[in-house]
Amino acid sequence: MPDATFAIPFWADLVAVGVGSLQGAMFASGFRDRRLDLLGIAIIGVATGLGGGLLRDIFLVVPLVALSTNWYLVVAVISALVGMLLVQLFNRLDVMITILDALTIGLFGAIGTTKALSLGLPVVPALFIGMVSAVGGSVVRDLLLGTRIGLMHVGSLYAVAAGVGATTLLVLFKLGVPAVAAAIVCVVITTLIRLLAVRYGWSLPEQRAL
Amino acid sequence: MPDATFAIPFWADLVAVGVGSLQGAMFASGFRDRRLDLLGIAIIGVATGLGGGLLRDIFLVVPLVALSTNWYLVVAVISALVGMLLVQLFNRLDVMITILDALTIGLFGAIGTTKALSLGLPVVPALFIGMVSAVGGSVVRDLLLGTRIGLMHVGSLYAVAAGVGATTLLVLFKLGVPAVAAAIVCVVITTLIRLLAVRYGWSLPEQRAL
Amino acid sequence: MPDATFAIPFWADLVAVGVGSLQGAMFASGFRDRRLDLLGIAIIGVATGLGGGLLRDIFLVVPLVALSTNWYLVVAVISALVGMLLVQLFNRLDVMITILDALTIGLFGAIGTTKALSLGLPVVPALFIGMVSAVGGSVVRDLLLGTRIGLMHVGSLYAVAAGVGATTLLVLFKLGVPAVAAAIVCVVITTLIRLLAVRYGWSLPEQRAL
Predict the structure, then answer these.
(1) What total of structural domains would you count in chain A?
(2) Model confidence over B134-145: pLDDT tens digits?
């Protein structure tokens, strides 16, 4: 098997974690009647920004990258507190945040999918790991906040964007495209689908019975 | 220690996963006002059919069997979507589904308990792993749906059936009965207790204080 | 690096687990309208008393100590059932329970932090593991009961006490203080902060935006 490793610069990884944590704190600010305290916000930040990567590594039974250096946790907590303090500013930067978040799920999905491949997982589990990496943080966030899990319900495509991106990566990789190139295509496709879904209100059908 | 390995044919394992996933999707169909989408149903299918095995392997710190081949995830997702589409048909097959599900928790319990034994765990943790394997999927399902966890509340015996079956397996195994024979007794006992509990409304007492 | 190992006598570890499980069952008794059954109480006991240690070992990707002997699960289940039966007695022993619980989070925090250090984790992840060890059980308990996660909301300091204790341990250890001495200081500080917070109603500020 060709080498499936795909790495992004460390600073880019930290920016992606920061975007996730900031998003999580902004989401938590909608629960103002619930009296979340500063620690609650920090926990939501860690869960949202690092949850996908933690679940990825637990499912792969490998050492948790998020615990291998001080930086991930520090960036997650600070980003969450900044997101909390400046939520009104960031709400006005809505478009920028949506773009950064779309990029983030693309990056996390590509990193997760290629990591699973490089550990020898078959394609369907690699796709599963890619999607968990991309959107697992939002599931953990919703569980901890006790709210319904957003991505399981009708709404603009989020996990599906990550899934299509990861599937493309897998197809290209199996066709012999180098992992790095396939990963870049994955990021672009995930980001595009996510942004177009937000723009045009694309969604999956609701559950239905025959 | 004698060999504690107990394996069932691969197709039987897939059928058991499929039954779990189909059950999960049928359960989720009761939340029609919540606008779960197709991805939500697929997630519930994966969680219910594979959740017990995933938790088992995470607790045992071994590679996740459910991610070792493409089949488990594919069967889980397809079963969930079929369960969603044909929920009215399967609701009429209520008795058959209950029997298959009772068999499934018996099989999952026997596989989990013997796997824990073969990895050298003492009997009480092996019993714990057996019960997690059998009913962990239903706990993950309830957590993801944000509903109360059914098996923690008064209702017809479910986890208890798995627990009695696994305990019997452990006693027989310690008495020198080969693992395969002990596992078969476990499946029979679990299935019987579960079906009799449904038929006669057996339940555990509610919590109470002196 | 100097040796970071810190061990407490096995009986003390079991007492700490028992206190946690008893506390969990007492907490669950407040949900009397929900018809939790005996198994539900046992599950809450295991989750509260062992949840922090299970999460710690899953995050560290090492064999789960709680499953290495029969004793932990047995003590957790029995303590939970005793807590359920004698909840009115223990409610009158409120002060004693609060003190024992404060000691327990101090002990779990010190064990977790030093275990993380001895496995080579950097200081911030070691602090994270220490806090998860100390208060993870209460988070799992709240998730399983479907109630809001107490420690994320304004209330008397709980996780913060564990965090300050673990931080002190890390500072002392990096200054060359032996792990055992640093761990004892951690237990004392955590217990003191927790008890003073209960006594004087100390809490973290609620989330707020600029």
Answers:
(1) 1
(2) 999 999 999 999
